[in-house]
Design brief:
alpha+beta
C-alpha cells in the first residue's frame, strides 16, 4: 500500500473521531445535572444561612437600641401607647397615666398609634426620620387636636434595621385601610415585634397576682401582663427578676401582602390592633391562627394563619419566620438566639414572663 493511501486512511480515521458521540454528550449532560442537583441545596442553604445571620444582626441592633433607650430614659419603651382594648379602637392614655379612667379621645392624643418602633428610631441611625416624626406629632393641628402617628406623611419611609431579609414581603408598604382597597395607607410594616408576655397581649391568667384587680378590664389586662413591652404601660428593667438573659424581648413575624384584604401584623404606624407585639403562648411557627383586630379576611395560610376578623376581644400573635425550624428571639440582655419551633411549651412560655419565677434555658 502506498504512503499516500495510508495517509488518506489515517486522516479519515481521525476525522471520524472528532467531537463527542450522542451517547457521550448525554452522559456529560447527566453528570452536570447530577452535580447541579447536589450543589443547589448547598448553595440555597448557604444563602439562607447568610440571610439568617443578617436577621440576627438586625435584631441585635434593635435589641441594643432598646437597652440604649432604657439607659437614657430609665425605662423600656412602651410596646404600644394605646391600650389594647376589645374593640381595636386603642384608647391612648396620657403619658404616665395607667388608671384607665380619664383617657381623652384618641384623636386628641399625640401618643395615639405610637409604639416602641418610634421610640427606637434615634438609636438605630434613623435620627432624621425620628426628628420629622416628633416634630409632626408635637404640633397641634389647626383645628385643635394633635395629629397621630397614623397620619405621619413620611410613614412609608423604610427602616432597614426592622426587616428580616428572608421575608419575601419585606419591606411591606402596601397596606389597606378597610374599605379603601385602592389606597396606599398606614406606612411601613416590619418584621420585628416586642414581647408582651407569656399569655395573651391583653388578658391575664386567673393565677396572675394582678388578675383580681385588672383581670376583667381589657385595657389594663394588657398594661399589666407579664412581658416587657406592654400595651399602655412602661416597664422598668429592675422588674425583670427572671433574669435579662432568660427573658424574651423581641422576635419576628411573617408579613402578609394586602392583595385582597387588610392584615395589620407588623404595622408600626397603626399598632392599636395588636400587630406589633407577640406572646410566647404558642411556640414559633405555630399552626394556630393569630388573633389580632381588624384583619379583613380569614386565611388558612400555613405560613401566617389568622383566626379572627374584625374587632377581637383578646389579642394573641405568634412569632414566625422564614428561617427553617424556628425563629430568632432577642433577650432583654441584648443577646439573640435561634429558638426551635419544637421547644417545650412550658420552657418557651417561661421565656415570655419577666417575673414569673421560672428558669428558662
Amino acid at each position: 500500500m502506498s504512503d499516500k493511501m495510508m495517509m488518506n486512511r489515517c486522516e479519515g480515521h481521525d476525522a471520524r473521531r472528532d467531537g463527542f458521540t450522542l451517547v457521550e454528550l448525554l452522559v456529560v449532560i447527566a453528570i452536570i445535572g447530577i452535580l447541579v442537583a447536589l450543589l443547589l441545596p448547598a448553595v440555597q442553604a448557604a444563602r439562607e444561612a447568610a440571610r439568617r445571620a443578617q436577621c440576627t444582626n438586625n435584631m441585635k441592633q434593635v435589641a441594643l437600641a432598646v437597652l440604649n433607650h432604657e439607659s437614657q430614659k430609665g425605662r423600656l419603651p412602651r410596646g404600644t401607647y394605646n391600650y389594647l382594648d376589645s374593640t381595636g379602637a386603642g384608647t391612648a392614655p396620657p403619658y404616665g397615666q395607667h388608671d384607665g379612667n380619664s383617657s381623652p379621645n384618641p384623636s386628641q392624643d399625640k401618643y395615639d398609634r405610637r409604639c416602641w418602633f418610634h421610640d427606637l428610631l434615634p438609636f438605630v441611625e434613623e435620627q432624621v426620620l425620628s426628628d420629622a416624626f416628633e416634630d409632626y406629632i408635637n404640633k397641634p393641628l389647626a383645628w385643635g387636636p394633635y395629629p397621630t402617628a397614623l397620619d405621619f406623611p413620611q410613614s412609608s419611609t423604610v427602616a432597614p434595621s426592622f426587616m428580616c431579609v428572608s421575608d419575601p414581603i419585606s419591606p411591606k408598604l402596601q397596606t389597606f385601610h378597610p374599605g379603601l382597597l385602592t389606597e396606599l395607607t398606614q406606612g411601613f410594616s416590619g418584621n420585628y415585634v416586642g414581647c408582651a408576655g407569656s399569655y395573651y397581649q391583653n388578658m391575664l391568667r386567673e393565677t396572675d397576682p394582678d388578675f383580681e384587680k385588672y383581670g376583667n378590664n381589657r385595657f389594663l389586662s394588657g398594661a399589666y401582663s407579664d412581658g416587657v413591652l406592654l400595651g399602655g404601660r412602661d416597664v422598668k428593667l429592675s422588674t425583670v427578676t427572671d433574669g435579662t438573659s432568660k427573658t424574651a424581648m423581641i422576635s419576628e413575624v411573617r408579613l402578609v401582602a394586602d392583595t385582597l384584604g387588610n392584615d395589620g401584623r407588623g404595622r408600626y404606624y397603626n399598632p392599636a390592633h395588636g400587630g406589633v407585639l407577640f406572646t410566647t403562648l404558642e411556640p414559633p411557627n405555630s399552626q394556630r391562627g393569630d388573633e389580632v383586630s381588624w384583619v379583613s379576611e380569614l386565611n388558612d395560610n400555613t405560613m401566617a394563619p389568622i383566626a379572627q376578623v374584625g374587632a377581637g376581644d383578646a389579642y394573641m400573635m405568634t412569632a414566625r419566620s422564614y428561617h427553617a425550624g424556628g425563629a430568632n428571639v432577642a433577650r432583654v440582655d441584648g443577646s439573640v438566639a435561634f429558638v426551635s419551633e419544637s421547644i417545650e411549651r412550658d420552657v418557651y412560655q417561661a421565656m415570655g414572663s419577666r417575673d414569673g419565677g421560672e428558669v428558662a434555658n
